[in-house]
Hints:
single chain, alpha+beta, Beta-Lactamase, five-stranded antiparallel sheet, 37% helix, disordered N terminus, phosphoprotein, phosphorelay sensor kinase activity, transmembrane helix, transmembrane
Amino acid sequence: MADGFPMSGDRARKGESGSIGVQMTDETQSPAPRSGGRLDPLQILFWFSVAVGLGAAGVALTAGQAVGQAGAVLLILLAAAGLVLFFWMSRGAGRRVGAFPERGAIAANSLLGGRDEFAFVSALDEAALITDAHLSPLRANHGYLEIAEAAGILGESDRPPMMSRLFGADPMLSAPMFRLSKAAQLGQTRREELPATAAITGKHARYEACVGPIPGGHVLWRLRELGAAEQGEGADDGRQLFLDDSPVGFFAAKADGQLIYMNRSLRAVLGLGDDPQLLRVKDMIKEDASRLIRRDRRGFGPSRAKVTLKGIDGQETQASVLSFVPMDDIDGAVRGLVFFSDAESPEGTVAARSVDTSSADGVFAQAPFGVAVLDGIDPGSAAVLDSNASLMEMTQGRSTPSAAFVDLFDASEGPAALAHRLRQAMNDPIEIQLATAPPTAVHVQLARGADGRALAYITNVSQQRELETRLAQSEKMREIGELAAGVAHDFNNLLTVVMQTCSYLLRRHPVGDADYPMLKEISDHATTAKELSEMLRAYARQQTFAREVFDVGDFLGSKQELIRRVMGAAVQTEIRHGRDLPYVKVDKTQLERVIVNLATNARDAMTPKGSPIARDGKLMIRTSVIEATAARAMGHTPMEDGKYVMIEVEDTGGGIKPEHAAKIFRPYHSTKEAGKGTGLGLATSYGIIKQSGGYIFFTSKVGVGTTFRIFLPEYTPTQEELDEIAAKERALIAPQPKDVSGRGKILFVEDLVPVRRATVRNLKECGYEVEEAGDGQEALDIMSAKPGAFDIIISDVSMPIMTGPEMLQEADPAMIGNAKVLFLSGYAPESFSDMLENYPVHYMSKPVTMEQLVGRVKELLAAA
């Protein structure tokens, strides 16, 4: 039997059995050229004929008129002979032995010519390829050609493809193929174990490729598929089978929640196939997934949690998960054992659900979108023949067989308009609402079946519409917030003028003067207006957080009267203080806002429908100390370890309905009647507590009441902070008279003339030398003329021409000297803090009274 050589694509595909491969028989191999590749008699005759034609043409050209018309005939013969010779050399044998040989063709032809020195490759039991030193393919055996045929790259060429083309569809194999090619060009031997790839057969397999030189300046390439034992999997087969066949579920997940492995039992409960797509832990459980993959318990044993598994068909399964991190933590993954039983015991067994995926009906039955088969092509008059589980759930059980298709949708615009809208779905998807309570937004598209029936595909887009609505609301509220911030800034400037002028007049009209009561009333109302300005800034998220160290019990005691006024006389209000409460460090104003908001919500919950005031209710506020472990035992799991002060606000209202529980802290979500709530109160409270480093949760029972729990982390104050707390307490008992007089040179920079005039007048009244500037550039000119002449520089932040921070950056250090810098602004310092990293500055929020400003100036000068 002949050794066999690479054949053309048509011949390589022929065989009596029709199988893929090359039949290595004498009947199918290409005939070798005669005479060992030398010219045969037919070729000699061809060359002789060409020579005769060329000679005759030469005679005709030299004889001239003597030959007559025969000269023209000979010229035509000359042209024809030239064309035949050219095409023969370029397209025929000339490619092998002529003037136009292709790369590697001569070497391949010599093999075909009978000098088969590489016949051994046909005897190899692995795929083999021979190339020349320039990596041009010459010869391949049957195994290699089978792989090339399976990869679909054999083509019509007589020569086999290079090995790199076998894996061209997988970019992960480009690097090892390059290393093999480089070794082949250098005459080196190299072996590569290739990564798993599906480029050959469509199924993942691993191969080993090696390359090495052979005598004659050629290169031998070999390729073989690795078995499971060679891939290092044999030792794990038993453990793999045990995990897959275990009656309990098992999964492994990375720290970010991405699932690495899931056994067969868990996949069956979730309704997943043998090769599920990439999932995360949050995709398979209904509750918070972070508690299953927490890593801060390493070395403290496993943690158990009750969960609700979510199948791809919407079916929920109660289970218990035992999650743990191995002591050695070699792969950085969290393991979890899942027990599928109400008793949460390993005895629970898995009721594996079988899914018929062999037919289209089985596929659509498990589809995550709605599918319905109609008995006609017109959706306006057709009835439902069948529907899948997703559509039954979306329509709340209305898509039963024989139900009219139009009855599934909202017909508020009329039956004719609804039928017209549904007919449009034959061309493009339409958006419409299902007749559910509440209505559900869906996309509907119809397709014509082969049997004349219509197929309806219905996708739930209610969440998408809700997100779009929330985004539009968010954009609107952001714009309103920017407007509020600008209004607050301008309002603060006006209040500064009022408060500074009022302070000036109160010094000239002290207690006992006839004008004192009216001036005092103006001052009090200006202070109230300042609180309104702070609320605007808080809404715009540009408020200044002033964290203080204080005792929560004392704080709530001071707010008891305020809470009673909020609740009204008909609601019984009680505050119970815990013992030995630790200190906390939060913003008192923000915490007061949270407590008042929770009390207001409790009052509304205890107010009967149709009544203007609450009746026969009770509000209980309790404080206590609690550890994080005890809080987790109450169901509040996502909490860091440590000690907390817990504030409980409990009411006896109607409770929160389950459908609202998951959205209670979302912006713009309100459980109150239309027009009685903005939906921002609890969202703002949640943000304030989170920004303070704490947590807020709630428990509720319909008809019984709701309890909100605030957890503020314990704070250990320094000795200086304890002394400051004691000084504040002494000042409350016996306030010291304020001395507003002082000495020093001040440069005051403010673009608004009324603000500048009122503030400068008060500073001069207190004994300071003040020089004023209308903007940053004017202030730079003054400092340049008088370098280092000022003790303190007071500047507004937002000014035309040059802002306060820009002025500070442009000023030379010699111009500023030892002067302290104090910024006054209606904006929060966070909005310009990035411009002031290279220079220490101080900040006061507008509006400020004369006593506040002068007190801060004296404090800064004393610190010098």
